[in-house]
Amino acid sequence: MGPNVISVSVLTGFLGSGKTTILGHLLREPEFSRTAVIINEFGEIGLDHELVETSEDSFIELKTGCLCCKVRTDLARTLQDLLQRRDRGSCPPFDRIVIETSGLADPAPILQTLMTDGGIATRFVLGSIVTTVDSMIGVGTLGREKISQKQVAVADRIVLTKVDLAGAAEPALLRRLAELNAGAPVLYAEHGRVKSQALFDTGLYDPRTKSLDVNSWLADDVHKPAHHDTEIEAYAIVRTDPIPAVVLTLFLEALAEHCGADLLRLKGIVHIAESPERPAVIHGVQHVFHAPIWLERWPSDERRSRIIFITRRIPRRWVEVLLDAIAAEVAQVSEPL
Amino acid sequence: MTGVSAELLCELLAHSFVAWRVAGSVQRSGDGAIVIGGNAKNIRIDPAPPDLMFRWMVTVDGRKRVAISLVAVLRQVREALDPGYATSRLRLAVAALVPS
After folding, report:
1. Could you say which of A167, A200, A233 is where a domain stops?
2. Cβ atoms of residues A187 and A50 within 8 Å
3. Is A189 within a domain?
4. CB of A329 within 8 Å of any CB in chain B?
5. CATH number (domain holding residue A108)
6. Do A277 and A187 belong to one domain?
7. Does residue A185 sit in the same domain as residue A262?
8. Are B92 and A275 within 8 A, CB to CB?
9. Over 90: is that where the pLDDT of B36 sits?
10. Which residue on chain B is closest to A252 by alpha carbon?
């Protein structure tokens, strides 16, 4: 990760949940002055971009359709275009990009584009995923709209909006959010303002330090107990023994093949047996996995492999046994004759 | 010798049915094979004979196929049990197994 790598964060949330209002307030803060914005609206006439005050030169509206299903190539092209303009100096310099998705967007394909498109994956790194939830009607929306569940499940941060109108978040809503994503801290927005200044700097890449911040990326999820939803579940697999590289490869291959869309998100740091001093950072969305990122060193004294899963109806025990069984087979193959 | 105990494989298969959302049963036969029932299929998993370069032998309704690894066994079992299963294997780039 060099200094020219740009963090791309995703602001998602169901229709009317307050994404644009949040973004509008954030962009007025000094620390967000070097932020480029991409807004994706679903429909013929875009309006959100009119509601966000930012530099025209570092702002792009994608209105050809919903990002998740129609314009993935447009997103890649837009990012490349922004980067070229930045490199040429024809737009204000920016250190961070925020993509506001349409309210109906499945975030997974967007994350996949950021991770896998050959033209952009080397210059951009996935920042954090922030999901807004309407505190007044969130329970109903989450009960009715599958896509809103997925938006919450993959989030690094959840922002409860309209708290000033609701008075307080319903306990039922907080329980539901914990069921869907126990690892993501819940922040509160009053009148569209979020107190946390680190809303978008919680991903793998920290634009402030221009380095990988694995501990903060993993810590919240690893240390919280798994909560169970009827479909979506989050859990962490921890292994003390180093994992041979080929075991990890086969494991990820099997996950991709058998879980597909039910593997909402995976992220982790892995102690590879052949690389004891340089751990691998892995992350994937559905059947797409980013090539491992090799850290120069361990970020702390904790050297266990930790892999976090957010899945839909994929039993934790299946994942554990799959890894153990592959490791057992590979170990037997590796034994001297 | 496959390196994978029969108990571990049975547990993996039982949880696989849940993950795949298919009906199936798994048990060990008296001769050491693992027998799976489901989707009107009879499936049997044996360690491959030592003279073969493969590790497993998967028999579906009498038809024998070899499998080079546990991952291949899972694929064959799922193909037999889950008619709607279509693998979507997509290798996007060659990545180093260890840092260069």
Report:
1. A200
2. no
3. yes
4. yes
5. 3.40.50.300
6. no
7. no
8. no
9. yes
10. B71
ipTM of the shown complex: 0.89
Same structural domain, A138 and A76: yes
Closest CA to A9 of A127, A178, A104: A127
Distance between CA A156 and CA A276 in Å, rounded? 28
Backbone angles phi, psi at A63, to 5 degrees: -125, 20
Nearest chain A Cα to B70, which residue? A326
Q: Count how many domains chain A has.
A: 2
Distance between CA atoms of A5 and A96, rounded to whole angstroms? Answer: 9
In this structure, what CATH number is given to the domain that contains residue A257?
3.30.1220.10
* Chain B touched by A138 (CB under 8 Å): no
Among A residues 234-273, those touching chain B with beta carbons less than 8 Å apart: 245-246, 249-250, 253-254, 256-260, 262, 272
Chain B interface, Cβ < 8 Å to A = 1-5, 8-9, 11-12, 15-16, 18-21, 55, 69-71, 74-75, 78, 87-90, 92-93, 95-99
Same domain for A73 and A147:
yes
Q: Which of A106, A55, A97 is nearest to A76 (CA)?
A: A97
Query: A with B: how many residue pairs have Cβ under 8 Å apart?
Result: 89
Rounded to the nearest angstrom, the gap between the alpha carbon of residue A210 and the centroid of all alpha carbons in its chain is 18
> Quick one: A76 and A196 in the same domain?
yes
Per residue in B44-79, pLDDT tens? 999 998 888 888 999 999 999 999 999 999 999 999
Residues A193 and A235 in one domain: no
B98–A326 CB contact, under 8 Å: no
Q: What is the pTM of this model?
A: 0.71
Whether A138 and A178 have beta carbons less than 8 Å apart is answered as no
Q: Which residues constitute the domain of residue A328? A: 223-334
pLDDT truncated to tens, each residue of chain A (337 aa)? 555 788 888 999 988 888 888 888 888 888 787 888 888 765 434 444 444 444 454 555 554 444 544 555 677 888 888 888 888 887 778 888 898 888 878 888 777 777 776 677 778 888 888 999 998 889 988 988 888 998 998 888 899 998 877 776 688 999 999 888 887 889 998 888 887 666 776 666 665 565 666 666 665 554 454 444 567 777 889 999 999 999 999 999 899 889 877 888 788 899 999 999 999 988 887 777 777 888 889 988 889 999 988 888 899 999 999 999 999 999 987 776 5
Residue A54 lies inside a defined structural domain of this protein: yes
- Are residues A172 and A309 located together in one domain of the fold? no
DSSP, collapsed to helix, strand or coil, labels residue A303 as coil
Burial B1-14 (b: 16+ CB within 10 A, else e): ebbbeeebbbbbbb
